[in-house]
Amino acid sequence: MPRTSPYHLTLTDAERTELEGRARRYTSPYSDVVRAKIVLYAAQGLGNDEIAARLDTPRQVVSKWRKRFHEQRLPGLADQPRGRRPPQFFPLTSSSRSKRWPANCPPQPAHRWPAGTARTWPEQPSGMHRAKVFGRCEQTTGIDPFDRLVDQVMTTEPYATARRVFWVVDNGSSHRGQASIDRLQHRWPKLRLIHLPVHASWLNQVEIYFSVVQRKVVSPNDFHTLDEVEARLLDFQQYYEQIATPFEWKFTKDDLNALLERIAAHEDTALTPAA
After folding, report:
1. 49-85 pLDDT tens trace
2. Residue 148 and residue 252: Cα distance in Å, rounded?
3. Domains and CATH numbers, the chain
4. Confidence (pTM)
5. Helix ranges restricted to H, 84-202
């Protein structure tokens, strides 16, 4: 039986006008749109479970912002300063490969991606600051699983009402070449598929996220079933959206030039005939 929230919301005319404006404004941060819609649905008398299903959002998130608005009204929907508790993850610049996601991290439901094959980061031109991961877990790879991922993103706000949505992809078989561009743009005319150079998938920002997953979630490989792998991936994905911060780049242009010089010197030495 669905649980009933103790927080019943009644909006003033000014609050309703402001929230409806936030919910419609495609330039608003995605989190602001979701929070506004949560409150509007709650004011219509919908329960948290139904709101979560409509917005494809965890019930815990709906409950949080419903309570926050009940207690603080519109100011309560703003992000609050983070505390200075010790981080739950080791710094991303660490070279250790054995550090993993702490076992006490609270599990939450999340979206899914085709395990090991979905290497896309769908974003609006101005949306790269959004810490939002879309994905699915599928039994197989290929065009159909990839297209289901595309459908999931393109029917979700703010992408559903965006003027254009750019997909940055590698050259995997499910989205390779002009045929994939024609197929996806026929289905989604505002979609723009951007292929990275061959053998350069590391240029895709989502590869950094995959690196975090590899080091902190699936290493070491101590799973007994595929269901355990899926559960941990999905829990981490939603959790990461809550704690993600900008990556601090350590490898500079000078570092790259120095590396290339060392490689060139090594190759010159290898090609020089022995005296």
Report:
1. 999 888 888 888 899 999 999 999 999 998 776 554 5
2. 38
3. 13-77 (1.10.10), 97-275 (no CATH)
4. 0.46
5. 143-154, 177-187
